[in-house]
Specification:
Oligomer: single chain
Strand order of the largest sheet: 2-1-3-4-5
Mean pLDDT: 92
CATH class of the largest domain: Alpha Beta
CATH topology of the largest domain: Rossmann fold
CATH superfamily of the largest domain: Cobalamin-binding domain
Order of helices and strands: HHHHEHEHEHEHEH
Number of strands: 5
Number of helices: 9
Bound molecules: cobalamin
CATH architecture of the largest domain: 3-Layer(aba) Sandwich
Length: 226
């Protein structure tokens, strides 16, 4: 039943069939499938396959737009189940956003949901976020971590710009920056002076936990909020 519903979800996203996708998602939740597996194995794998088809000229932009809407609808259905798994007290604050010029936010949303499950508090600035906004909010909220998502080879350059702007504003010593998104690599993260990189949402949680630990040590363990 579960395997069959995963297959239905995959097909429904590829065919941009909202009704079938919602039904398959509900069936998976009812059958007790892991929420993270529904997001990663069900939705993300289908979206990645659609991306491959798009590259090969076998899928077109309207289909991708429609599939992205469905992805959002279905991940919203899964999120409460995901959060119910967490139950840990909110600890460190993460400021999260997709960089300027970039409208891709599905991956960023999954990372946000998974961080919340792991007990992080997340302030999500959304997508196409101007550099100044990251700096203003970092100054105002004083997060432990800033997470920067970029899905385009052009916009990944903005990740460096944000890091430089945090430096210029004197905020860099107090904040850890992690970067991600399909074109982003560990080598790119190193090159631009980011503190962490993750290829997927599960890894992002591991990286954030490590960075939050390091940030707590840097402030002499004065980690009052969590
Ligand atoms: C869906 C999609 C869209 C949707 C986005 C809808 C939305 N609300 O997000 C729409 C249709 C709007 C779109 C538009 C465009 N897109 Co598009 N899109 C995709 C597609 C098919 C899937 C991306 C996706 O959502 N994947 C699923 C999510 C879950 O995965 P993910 O984003 O990679 O996130 C995971 C990890 O990367 C990581 N992660 C993500 N963020 C972060 C952040 C941190 C801090 C960390 C630690 C980890 C992390 O964890 C996530 C979860 O596991 C990709 C193909 C691909 N292979 O990626 C193309 C793709 C990214 N798009 C592409 C292009 C070219 C465009 C357009 C320019 C097309 C056009 N001609 O208009 C526009 C650009 C618009 C803009 N200014 O941003 C190209 C980019 C090529 C390049 N080298 O730059 C791709 C690769 C497709 C291709 N042709 O090859 N797109």
């Amino acid at each position: 039943m579960v395997e069959e519903a995963f297959a239905r979800l995959h097909e429904a996203v590829l065919n941009a069939d909202e009704e079938a996708a919602v039904k398959a998602t509900r069936d998976l939740l009812d059958a007790g499938a892991e929420p993270q597996a529904i997001l990663e194995r069900g939705l993300t794998e289908a979206m990645t396959e659609l991306g491959r088809r798009w590259n090969r000229g076998e899928a077109f932009l309207p289909e991708v737009v429609a599939a992205a809407e469905i992805f959002k609808t279905c991940s919203d259905l899964v999120e409460p189940a995901l959060l119910a798994r967490g139950g840990r007290k909110a600890g460190h604050l993460v400021l999260m956003g997709t960089v300027k010029g970039d409208l891709h936010d599905l991956g960023k949303n999954i990372v946000t949901a998974m961080l919340k499950t792991a007990g992080f508090e997340v302030s999500d600035l959304g997508r196409d976020v101007p550099t100044e906004r990251f700096v203003e909010e970092a100054a105002r909220l004083r997060p432990k971590i800033v997470g920067l998502s970029a899905l385009l080879t052009t916009t990944m350059l903005e990740q460096r710009t944000v890091i430089q702007a945090l430096e210029a504003a004197g905020l860099r010593p107090d904040v850890r920056v992690m970067v991600g998104g399909a074109p982003v690599t560990a080598a790119w993260a190193d090159e631009i002076g980011a503190d962490g990189y993750a290829a997927n949402a599960a890894e992002a949680v591991e990286v954030a936990l490590r960075l939050a630990g390091a940030a707590a040590q840097d402030t002499g363990g004065r980690d009052t909020d969590g």
